Amino acid sequence: MPEGHSVHRIARQFARNFVGKPVQASSPQGRFAEGAAVLNERTVEQVQAVGKQMFLEVEGDVWLRVHLGLYGAWDFSGEILVDPTIAAANGRMGQTNQRGTIVDDEILDDAGENSLASIGAPRKTRVHVRMSEQTTGLQDDDTWPPPVVGQVRLRLLTDITCADLRGPTACVLQTPEEMLASVAKLGPDPLVGDPAEGEERFVRAVAKKGTPIALLLMDQAVVSGIGNVYRAEMLFRARLNPHMPGKAVPQSVVREMWRDWVRLLSIGVETGQMMTMDDLNPDEYRAAMAHRDDRHWVYHRAGLPCRVCGTEIALEEIGARKLYWCPSCQA
């Protein structure tokens, strides 16, 4: 499932490429035809990501709420103007021309996790990206808009950029009141509002619950954006037993976990990858950016020795999701 960093990256792409522009909207798949008709020819006014959900406002007090769920993704094509706050995997954006488009070195990991063309559930795409006049991209025999490939729930199109939504859990239109109600149901997000206030909300929510902390971190009403990868890594980084009831976790540990989430989310947004290991030398960092298995402490390492103590990493199911943890470091 795409985690919070991916949704914030998507929102920033929309802010650069769609806000302030009228869009042509359609539902090639047909499942969102009525909603697309409402959005069609309206100007995008703002976009906001909260946790794993994105909210896009168009003129006329209409909001589009999208939750990618397990399999959803946005595919971008055409001329993509990349938000300058988003770095490539090697820590730099590459050279840019005066229009702000990337002209070299889009660095991907082996799973394409930080791809600028497709953000969400990992997938292979046939999306064309025109990075600049000097780079290959849309060819003379390509058509505009690009042909629809596969099941596209919603297509949003400007004169130069196309965004195709595939496989979302939710794609609905909302009134301003409905949008605010949706946001109110979500826990704090470090990139939305005051992080200090978010910390207090998180601490209070955890302190009330006898639920295992491993489940609370995945509860989007407790904290927004944390998914299976960040959950496992944050628990290890805190050396915290995943089965400990939330109300039994020392408040100082809960606060440090929030501050760790602030750091990790910012890194994820900037790099497009869930980097959770610290103090890597340059070669180790580059390897970690290229391969997920070099990027995490415990996630996806069942049966392998703990990087700290050598104990075999355990795998169990909790909350219908796989949990990786070290029985020694997190005893």
TrEMBL record:
Residues of the FPG-type domain: 297-331
Coiled coil regions in record: none
Known cofactor(s): Zn(2+)
Domain of life (superkingdom): Bacteria
Domain annotation Formamidopyrimidine-DNA glycosylase catalytic: ranges: 2-81
UniProt similarity note: Belongs to the FPG family.
Protein name as it appears in the record: DNA-(apurinic or apyrimidinic site) lyase
Species this chain originates from: Microbacterium keratanolyticum
